[in-house]
Amino acid sequence: MVGNQAVSAESPHKSKAAGTGDRMKISTKGRYALRLMYELACHADEGYLNIRAIAQRQQISEKYLEQIIAMLSRGGCVISSRGAQGGYRLAKPPEAYTVGMILRLTEGCLAPVPCMQEGCAPCERAECCPTQFVWEALDNAISGVIDRITLADIVAHARGEAQQQ
């Protein structure tokens, strides 16, 4: 923190107003993808759901959901069917999808800082970086949460069936 400005994780020299950094945020795309998958999980035993019904229940733009469902379809998460009774359904049971899988598909990398991204060139300061352990711990904590919670857990929680973990 510099004065009342937060220092960006990307550059120690640039500052941004607190809360406006571009890291550690899940976009509407990721949040809406989870809500869309939640709807499909809730109604998994009913067959195919159309986007319009999901959009109405979740109060999300139908056009935006169409973009998101295309990503989920390409990622093998959903199966589509055309026709009057067509729509979308989960490709696997709700237990097979973690929040992490869905977010990484829609958001890409969720690492808190660039040097923690998979496939990233090794940081030239890795050997002497006093804060690297902080970023590793944060990355592990985030992954530990989002890779443990499944769509089935979200459905159970929404229905009041969640058990304390």
Automatic annotation (TrEMBL):
GO MF term (any one): DNA-binding transcription factor activity
The protein's name: Transcriptional regulator, BadM/Rrf2 family
Keywords: DNA-binding
Stored Pfam families: Rrf2
GO cellular component: cytosol
Domain of life: Bacteria
InterPro entries to which the protein is assigned, alphabetical: Tscrpt_reg_Rrf2 (IPR000944), WH-like_DNA-bd_sf (IPR036388), WH_DNA-bd_sf (IPR036390)
Sequence segments annotated as region (Disordered): 1-22
Record PROSITE patterns: HTH_RRF2_2
